[in-house]
Every structure is written in structure tokens, then in C-alpha cells.
Design a protein that fits this description.
Structural class: mainly alpha
Strand order of the largest sheet: 1-4
Shape: globular
Number of helices: 10
Order of helices and strands: EHEHEHHHHHHHHE
Distance between the termini: 20 Å
Oligomer: single chain
Number of strands: 4
Length: 266
């Protein structure tokens, strides 16, 4: 099976997520209304268009909404719905309420699908889908720390890898920790701490050196060493120019065609 997408997926790493201007995200259809209010930033589709004329010849515009801005600032800045740190919040969630949904509260484990240890679905976790969106949610949608997990198969695959890694680590901790530490909360938090460190190691030890090169890594003090020091004065927030422009190179670094191999016959 081949899945084609019009843009590369967002890799499983930290990137800014903003609230749309509408009170109901992904509900407002500026193309249908024809009104270019302060929340709308639609893009007209010319005819003929070399892509949309082939995929959907009735499409006349792309529905784009501006993000909610922070009040009281001299320059326009947006809220970030996720944490700015590389803390694996895309696996565990950025809010306690969301984290609670994907935890089993047994042996420190995260929920997985009952049949194949893939990601759990909305139906499995009894989470009602929002049918009001332009792209309505479905009961079969995956649940993860970051709900953009359903954007692309490759992105979902990376979520599966880290969820399984968390449960693997939690299982080992339960085997080797002293009995008094084998509570669900201790196992969950310690497994989360280890997986977060693994993700940081991948980012600074493999991803950034590949993208930036050793010289740039050394120049800005980004090379991973045995010891490090936390700087509480450092602002970890993500600037708009990076989130909306520079970091988008990752989208074109991913193949637009994903080939899914058939299940192996045992």
C-alpha cells in the first residue's frame, strides 16, 4: 500500500503548536464564508493548478486561520500549546489532564492497543471525537501525547516507538528496583525521565550534528558531554521565525510517499 501526502510530516520532536484564532479550532471555514476577517488568511488557488486541478478541481482557496496572539506586546507573538523543552511531552502530553488519559495507572505503563501494542484509539480510551471540525475526528484516531500523531503514518510510527520504549523501561524498572519503589507513580516518572533523556540524546547526539555539522555544534556549545549545567536564566521559548520558517525544512526532508509493507506471514 502506498500513502501519498501533499507535505512531509512533522517529525517527532519539539515544534511550536499555536491556538487558532477561532474559539473552535479547525471549525471556521473562511473559504466558505468569503469574509476575510482578522482571523482569516486564506490562500487563493489559481486555475488551472498543477496539483489541485489533479486532486480536487473544485477547490478555489486554502482555508488558513491566524493563531491567537498574546495581548499587550508591541510585536505579535503566539501562544505555544506545548512545552518548549525537549522533555518528550509529545509522548506524555503537555498538560496533566491529557497525560492522565494515556496512562494505565498500572506498573507505570502507557496505554497501547489491546490487540497489537500499537497506539490506543479514542474509542479504547473512551474519548469522544469532535465532529465539528472541518476534518472531523474519528473514534479510530490514535491517542498520544501530541494529537498531531494522526497527521502522517511516519509520525505515528515514531510515537509507537517511544510508547513501547517507555513500557519496556517501566517493565525493567519493576524487575530491578527495590520493592518499596515499585509503585505506579515511581515507575511512570522514572521511565519518563529515562525516555526524555533518550530523546534529548537523539536530538543533540544524532539529529543536530547531522543537520548543523560539528563546527556549528561546537561554536554554539551544543555538543553533548558527560556533564552539563542547567541555566535557569536561559529562555527556552521558540521564536516565530524559527517555528514558522526555518524549522519547516524538515517537512521537505521527508519522503512524500510512504510504502507500507504487507504483514509478514508466520
Amino acid at each position: 500500500m502506498v500513502t501519498r501526502t501533499t507535505s512531509g510530516p512533522k517529525l517527532l520532536k519539539k515544534r511550536k503548536k499555536t491556538n487558532l484564532f477561532s474559539n473552535l479550532p479547525e471549525v471556521t471555514d473562511c473559504c466558505a464564508s468569503g469574509v476575510q476577517g482578522p482571523s482569516c488568511f486564506t490562500i487563493a488557488i489559481p486555475s488551472p493548478d498543477r496539483f489541485f486541478s489533479w486532486v480536487n478541481n473544485t477547490a478555489k482557496c486554502l482555508n488558513v486561520l491566524r493563531s491567537i496572539h498574546v495581548c499587550g506586546l508591541r510585536t505579535r507573538e503566539q501562544y505555544n500549546e506545548i512545552t518548549a523543552f525537549i522533555d518528550a511531552s509529545n509522548v506524555y502530553g503537555s498538560e496533566q489532564e491529557h497525560s492522565a488519559l494515556i496512562r494505565t495507572y498500572r506498573d507505570g505503563r502507557l496505554h497501547v492497543h489491546r490487540q497489537n501494542e500499537q497506539l490506543p484509539t479514542r474509542r479504547q480510551l473512551n474519548v469522544r471525537p469532535d465532529l465539528r471540525k472541518l476534518r472531523p475526528e474519528r473514534s479510530e484516531d490514535f491517542m498520544a501525547g501530541d494529537m498531531r500523531v494522526n497527521e502522517h503514518p511516519f509520525l505515528a510510527t515514531l510515537h509507537v516507538v517511544f510508547v513501547r520504549e517507555h513500557n519496556r523501561v517501566a517493565k525493567l524498572l519493576r524487575e530491578y528496583l527495590p520493592p518499596r519503589y515499585r509503585t505506579d507513580e515511581v515507575l511512570y516518572q522514572e521511565a519518563r525521565r529515562i525516555v526524555s533523556a533518550e530523546m534529548q540524546n537523539v536530538v543533540y547526539g544524532e539529529f543536530l550534528p547531522t543537520v548543523l555539522g560539528v563546527e556549528v555544534m561546537r561554536r554554539y556549545g551544543l555538543i553533548v558531554e558527560e556533564t552539563s549545567e542547567y541555566d535557569p536564566q536561559m529562555d527556552p521559548s521558540i521564536v516565530n521565525s524559527f517555528a514558522t520558517s526555518a524549522f519547516r525544512f524538515c517537512a521537505v526532508a521527508v519522503y512524500s510517499t510512504t510504502v507500507v509493507a504487507p504483514a509478514l506471514q508466520g
